[in-house]
């Protein structure tokens, strides 16, 4: 009887150990599944952040290229405006020179007319 009780007790213990082992395996599997789900969820966020970073980098490069191009165009416009300003200045200088020459020619003409009149009066 005692040996049957011991065997029965050992059998119950064995069943409890088997149930406990099954539950331990289920718990490990559930924890593993949870961990995998969390990692997958985090990986989605990380992947999205990586894609966003790549887009930002591409847009930053494009913006830099556009800014460089704009700077070159602005410099070209400045050079063109400076050339135009110089040309206008030269035109102003030529106009001033022409007015000076015109004044000198009038003075000479007036002087010649006076000399001619004086020479006509003395003849």
UniProtKB/TrEMBL annotation:
Family from the record: Belongs to the BLOC1S1 family.
InterPro entries listed in its UniProt record: BLOC1S1 (IPR009395)
A cellular component annotation (GO) from this entry: BLOC-1 complex
Organism of this sequence: Phaedon cochleariae
Domain of life: Eukaryota
UniProt-recorded name of the protein: Biogenesis of lysosome-related organelles complex 1 subunit 1
GO biological process: endosomal transport
Pfam families, A to Z: GCN5L1 (PF06320)
